[in-house]
Amino acid sequence: MSVTPSDPFIVAERPAGPVLDKAGAVRRIQSETSASPLEVMLDLIRLARGPGRIQLTDYIRLRLFDRDLWQEKDRNEVVGEKQNRLIADLLNDDREWVAVLRNKVAAAAYLGAYGLPVVPTIALWQRGAAARLSGHVLADEADLVSFLRNEARYPLFGKPIDGLQSLGAVALEKLSGDKQSIAISTGGRISVETLANQIAKEFEEFIFQPRLSPHPDIAPLSAGHLATVRLLTLNMGDGARVLRACMKLNAAENAADNYWCPGNLLAQIDMASGALVAATTGLGFDLQTTEYHPDTGVPIPGVRIPLWTDIVNLGVAGAEVMRHVPLIGWDIGISAQGAVIVEMNETPDFLLPQLADRAGLLEPDLIDALRHRKGVVEVVGKRRLARLLAK
Description:
This protein is α+β, with helices and mostly antiparallel strands.
């Protein structure tokens, strides 16, 4: 496979999903559960009026209609996507520190200053950069071409400075002997000029980092890519702690481990031992559980995550350093060199731990944290959340 200049090699936006056919979705739920349409709608209404503010899309994506999946868990503790954003905004209300967290260069420099392991930046593209104090600041397309052909040491990983969910990320394997093209992680090649042109056209700022090798004990479960553990930490000034953890696993030649990439896996973790419990792929009507990695056939349940204690300690230490942002989703890579912070998320996606654990996040620790913001909740008139905190 080769990539021509017209091919959208860099995925800068998530592919749009199909338009939800609400009537068709209700019929599908009815066929899978034997519930009547009225029972389905009443169940959804009860959850929508609850503290998690579940909407139809949440109800489907998380399969909240599937009582076998959620078993005895209280579905009223499940947080919907909109309520997820509200909670993150209420807790992470220091916008200056959130801005630091969002900028990958600034965040890595800050964490690194405290001695925390981060992935180094070896080159920075900034469109029209005026200050070029370093030879690794790339200001125009010619600089990008020159770097990719001459200075870069492959394999490389590139991503936008303020990117989310691996949008815009590229995994580059090897430069050709004639320096005209680069092998890409999904197979095939892309010309140096095409790649430089797409980066220059799509992004104001873009960084290149060394592509770290996965720990050998986890490589068979991540298709040879750097897999990450997602830690959700909370620090309200009374000490940082880990609320939840789950593991994201690459599959189907995906360079990034984000769950929205088709084929990727999400694994539940036993917090005490660091052992993987179960794995899931897909969402909603396409959700499946699996005991084996689809590419390698390696069993997943029972695998102990290497460096588990280091990973947890690193997340807690990072949350102490980033104490001005109470709620953070950490992606911590399990590399051959050790645990390393890949990036932070100031609006962590609750879907990941909720789906992995089959358990909602509206538990005492998070509710207590929200009580610190109760006045804010009442001022903005979020009545459902205010009622929850009044209990």
